[in-house]
What does this fold into?
Amino acid sequence: MTGEQRDTNLNSAAALDLLRAHRFQWYEILPWVIAIAVFFAFPGYRLLATQILVMIMFALSLDLIVGYAGIVSLGHTAFFGTGAYTAALLANNGWGEPLSALLAAAVMAAILGVVSGWIILRTHGLTLLMLTMALSIMLYELAKDLDVIKIGDEEVTFTGGFDGINFSNDAILGLFEFDAVWYSINYWYALVFLFAAFLVIRTIVHAPFGRALIGIRENVDRMHAIGSPVFRRKLVVYVISAAIAGVAGAIFVQVQGNITIGVYEFELAGNVLIMIILGGTGRLYGAFIGATVFTILENFTEHVLGTDPPYWELTVGLTLVLTVLFAPRGLLGIFESVLPSRSSNAPGGAPGRAA
Amino acid sequence: MEYAVNTATTILVFGIAYAMLLFIISVGLSITMGLMGFVNLAHGSFAMVGGYLTVKLVVPVGVPYLAALLIAFIAVALIGVIMELVLYRRLYNRPELDQVLLTIGIVFASVALVTFVWGNNPQNIQLPAWLRGDVDLGFKSIPIFRAFMIGAGAVIVAGLFYGLERTRIGAQIRAAVDNRRMAESCGINTGRLFTLTFALGSGMAAIGGGLGIQILGGLKPVFAFEYLVIFLIVVAVGGLGNIRGTFFAALLLGIIDFAGKYFLPEGGSFFIYLVTFVVLLWRPQGLFGKA
It folds into this structure.
């Protein structure tokens, strides 16, 4: 067998492997069945359920860069918030059509992703982490400073700052009105876009591009050595992730009909990172489990015990410390170690811990 | 002319006082990063706890301000040793993400705990009489406390440089920052060295917290979050593990931040971020960092 033939065989074996991993498994329908069942079973909790769907989407976008490419960001709210403000400001200033607003949100977040990523991704470690935080804090300050703007002599509310703004959207496709009481259309709207985003992300991580990202995460020197365009790949995935986070942010405010500068808050960026850690990074469904468990527990705790004193923050803090020390692969990791048969199929495992 | 001199003096004095504060708090973080490559986001929590200890010693107990700072230094250094031995040590060889999560967890928990114990209201202290009022420079009078901060900062900077450049321990720390494996091969106990520097860095952060209560306009538990990014900026712009770099970065950023807020009260806080992005675009490893 000549070297060239062996290469082709190897390549096709690798391609088959990717195809096999990409094939849907029976259990992958479960989250969607549950999501549909929740709509009918708990009509009183649809707002919470819609928020969970949005958080899953946001967490998925973050998992794409943290779990797959190994870019640790504590400022992903920069994109979530930018998408949210794009949609909200369009709606509040006369452009109430929701789908085009989503597109605009994705574009704005992607542009921010290109510009910031071009600088941020040249650095690594603490510097990179700090720059992601700095970006979201800058935008937070900007949104705070632009609460009212002057047009001529008149002061007009713009972002509304801490108080935020309320706005309304047109019906989706002119047919489906957002429902501010029962959140019915709102729920389906979020679910459909979550599904679409999930398909995009699932395709990316099982494509050769996704494998290259895992390679960058695991051993960046080797990826340089085999001639992989590391910086470009990181930038591309960063921009894709930014766009998806922007869409999540836009949906988050569209379904509620209001926005505050909370969408840029550091705590939200921390929370969404915690969600994917809780579920397990680099494994897609980690985002589903983490976002759901986190949001439900947060709501439950704050309802029962209140927000002052902050029992929830204390619980989160201690849980994080314990998770890092004793369950570094998250909740899904615990299940996988109990059921070891499937774990080899997970695309890459948790960062730095792949055997 | 007189106006220009006045303005320049104000900006320099207030800016340098702020810079000293940034340096005192950030330098521990920088050494920790340089020595073990450990991303310690809980550093702001040490400063916050130090500030609270100072307030609670001065206000209800009546301990003199300087003694309270010293006690806060010792107490937080001890907390640092315990944390290092029990938690941080286990994660030196783990991925950066784990270190980020552990320390973020510590931040959340410490903010919540401090809120439990001391509540959410901003804390302030009455400075002792000899630190109140103004000192006359001839052409302009400046607040004594700012002058005191600059003096205290200068003493600490001089002490640190002397300790690092002229003592045996300092030489060992420099060696370990430079090349940890090589230092270990020479028989330097880097583990113990790290515990020591960690304690020192945490204690310095506590002093910074105690000194900063006034300048930062009252102390709240969320201090641990709010100023974290500024400390990280100082460390990154200066270059990880580089004390001289941290000092000049603190000076540059402290003065720019104060000047920005002075001339442009609305939007002036952007300057520090702008400078950060530009510096790191030009030198991603920081001003004095190794490439």
User: Anything to note?
Assistant: Chain B has twelve helices and two strands. The longest strand of chain B covers residues 134-136. Chain B touches chain A through 47 residues (CB under 8 Å). Chain B has one domain: 2-282.
